[in-house]
Amino acid sequence: MAIEKFIYGEMNGKNVHGFIITNKCGSKVQIIEKGSTLDKIILEDKYGNFIDILSGHGSLDGHINRSDYQGVVVGQYANRIKNGSFTIDGVTYNVTQNEKGVTCLHGGGEYSSAHWCGKELDENSVEFTYTSPDGQDGFPGNVDVKVIYTFDDENNLSIEYSAISDKKTVINLTNHAYFNLNGYENGDVLKHTLQINADRFTAIDEMSIPTGELPEVKGTPFDFTTKKEIGRDIEEDFLQLKNGMGYDHNFCISDYDGSLKTIAIAKGDKSGIKMEVKSTEPGVQLYTGNFLDGSIIGKGNLPLTKRSAFCLETQVYPDSPNHPEWPSCVYNAGEEYKSITIFSFSK
User: Fold this and answer.
1) Would strands 117-122 and 104-105 be described as parallel, antiparallel, or unpaired?
2) For residue 61, how many other CB atoms are within 10 A of its CB?
3) In what helix (H) or strand (E) does residue 113 lie, and over which residues does it extend?
4) Which member of 44, 137, 254, 287 has the lowest number of beta carbons within 10 Å of its beta carbon?
5) Which SS3 state, helix, strand or coil, does residue 285 take?
6) Which residues are catalytic?
7) Got the DSSP string for 170-190?
8) Which residues of the chain have pLDDT under 70?
9) How far apart are CA 345 and CA 291, in angstroms?
């Protein structure tokens, strides 16, 4: 194992460093300090070719000016908060409404835009830290955040999140990687197979906000309990698909108990690369790149087009601050938030 540290670019007059972890298989993972961004995952496909399975950007300028959250850590609250408002202990907090001027999306973009501090921990781990100041984007508490990426010789990529606030607050962190297991330049992901260990999902309204209903997936296009192609049912005449313009929904993990367990398995139809996702979180957001319209130029100077990638964002349910009946996202002052997600790759 080896880690290479280099200067990726400059932001606000400071160097932004990148880190490349290379294992004995020749596989590589690259992470950069801007947004604690998972920038590249390079793996060998079934033909012996090494391909980058992450859709995103090839320069810091792209990450800063053209990103649609590709590969970044999002927080302080990943996903959406209805009307940018929630209440803790009788106090109402109004947070940044950065989606259509109404919804708070991914904490207002703070964590994904920040310059994190990266350092090598050992031969296969890199730690990124960031402190979010009290009141940033309306969220209470000075929050010290740490994300550790570990990539081993068996092609397991672990992402460990931790955070501590000095005030009672809401915390929900995830990585917003866009995957194309055939390689970022290799068409859409509709023929990828996907299985998700979830019997229910969070229904959304036309603003992509949870309605509070948790319908069963059985008998609907949302049934991924056995593997199927991502695109098999995506164009069905179904209200939830219309509301999300495809899949942009949280799936509720079956038998959730906070332990690390397999929640999803995906496989590229052309590459043969398989990705198993394990998590300690109660939910996972499946997003199929519905809003990519080709106007954003990404790696290889190629446009990022509709359904050219998919996301599996491990998380608590969206808008959980306004649904106390769902798994909790509220942490007391000094109480540690911890979460682990592991992406395991094989052929």
Assistant:
1) unpaired
2) 11
3) helix 110-113
4) 254
5) strand
6) 176, 313
7) E-B-EE--EE-TT-TTS--ST
8) none
9) 27
